[in-house]
Amino acid sequence: MNALIIKGTENTPGINLDKKNGIFEISGRSLVDEASPIYKSVLDWISAYSAMPNPTTELALKFDYVNNTSSKFILDIFSALAKIEGSRIVWYFHDDDEDMEEVGEELAELTDIPFEFKTY
User: Fold this and answer.
1) Is 6 helix (H, G, I), strand (E, B) or coil?
2) What pLDDT digit, counting tens, does each position of 55-107 carry?
3) Which of 39, 30, 37 has the alpha carbon at shortest distance from 12?
4) So where are the chain's domains?
5) Residue 35 CB neighbour total at 10 angstroms
6) If we measure between CA atoms, which residue out of 31, 1, 32 comes closest to residue 17?
7) Looking at residue 80, what DSSP letter applies?
8) CA atoms within 13 A on the CB side of 78
9) pTM here?
10) CA distance 89 to 91
11) Which CATH number fits the domain 4-119, given the four candidates 1.20.5, 3.30.1150, 3.30.750, 3.40.50?
12) Contact yes or no for 32/39 (Cβ under 8 A)
């Protein structure tokens, strides 16, 4: 399975989904519009990955900023991952960024996937 690697921009997150190397990360700023092709590509990749996933899947999210539209896409990703046994989320935030910590806490309440919070 090919890795999905998308370089981040000023308004879109960087994506690195690499089954072979066990790297699953989305990071940066996410100010996407309603019909974001970036998150659609992530959901399509996860759908294909779910046919033969790794024994564990740890998605690291390291956002600087997430708008409301992005939050909806992130919940869609969580829903897709919830169907994959051994999935978990690690939500990273800067130790002085209460807003991103709160966003993570709100999203964690809306999913059944194991969640871990880490500062960096």
Assistant:
1) strand
2) 999 999 999 999 999 999 999 999 999 999 999 999 999 999 999 999 999 99
3) 30
4) 4-119
5) 8
6) 1
7) H
8) 21
9) 0.94
10) 6
11) 3.30.750
12) yes
Q: Which of 70, 86, 8 is nearest to 34 (CA)?
A: 70
Q: What one-character-per-residue DSSP string does 88-120 give?
A: EEEEEE-TT-HHHHHHHHHHHHT--S-EEEEE-
| Phi, psi (rounded to 5 degrees) for 109 | -70, -20
Amino acid identity, residue 60? A
Q: Give the contacts of 66 (CB within 8 A, at least 6 positions apart).
A: 30, 74, 100, 103
Locate 23 and state its tokens: 């790297």
* Terminal-to-terminal C-alpha distance of the chain: 31
Q: What is the CA 109 to chain-centroid distance, rounded?
A: 15
